[in-house]
Amino acid sequence: MLKVMSFLHSNGIVHRCLDSVYFLVDDKYNLRLINYGYSAPIEGRDGAGLLMTILGADGKMAPEIWAG
Asked: Which structural domain range is residue 53 located in?
């Protein structure tokens, strides 16, 4: 899982919806991350370095999102 996240981040992408249901295992037991629908560039859509969209299920959002 950490290799997947490292790969994404080193390529300038954040997934923004990590959940165990989005990880699959192939026939050789390789972990695969699916569902990139909420992915975004690390620097933000406008290049400001901010990702402002509120995403996710209420019970799984980070506390700083709830705090605004």
From this structure: 2-67
